[in-house]
Amino acid sequence: MIPGAGTLVNVATVLLGSGLGVLLGNRLPTRTRELVTDALGLVTLLIAATSAMEVLSPDLSDAVGSSAPMLVVLGAMLVGGIVGSTLRLEQRVEQLGAWLQRRLGGGSGSGDAAPDAAVPDTAGPGAAAGERRRRFVEGFVVASLVFCTGPLTILGSLNDGLGNGADQLYLKSTLDFFAAIAFAASFGWGVAASVLTVVTVQGGLTLVGLALGDVLPDAQLAAITATGGLLLVGVALRLLRIREVAVADLLPALLVAPLLVTALAAYR
Q: pTM of the prediction?
């Protein structure tokens, strides 16, 4: 199997799902699109919970001690959040989404789902254009985070690069196809633009797998998975419109978590 094939399949399924979602979105009432987003938020919360339970992994406890796994995740989130907010990652992701909207979806026929249903006609074309832009950016940000922060992204991309096959990425592609339909029905073409993030993140991790020559220790993978689960909780809170958590600012936690495991394991 050629390394990177799993990412290419993933990109194709996201684009196909986004196209179908936009077609459906134009025919769905606003309340239905909101309900679809709520359902995705609840499912994302379920996936997040199962991933975060990796904090109880025996491999992680053996490496850092039975009382330290929670501290590893806490430390990763705090340090990662400080680094991410200093680098203004959330703002940069939103700016990238806004730039893509201007380049790819700036016209009135951009295909965003029923913008006039969310903005009254009396608000004028400027308000409608602003709403289309907001939905594009939100779709790009949310889809990018959902498609790129899960454990399947990390493990699947690494294994793909290591030559162990892309089965995990094929599973992820199937899940992302249905998620893209639902997201695009609510947010429009911004979801399709997230394939740029998918290519960058998964392609980069595949290259890392090629360079590593071996998978990370189980303890470090468990820490990454648990931390990624908490990031998905933040995504779920955004989808459920509970709180706009700046999840992108927390992404460095995925790099900090295995470093903390290595440091604590050496200290022991």
A: 0.71
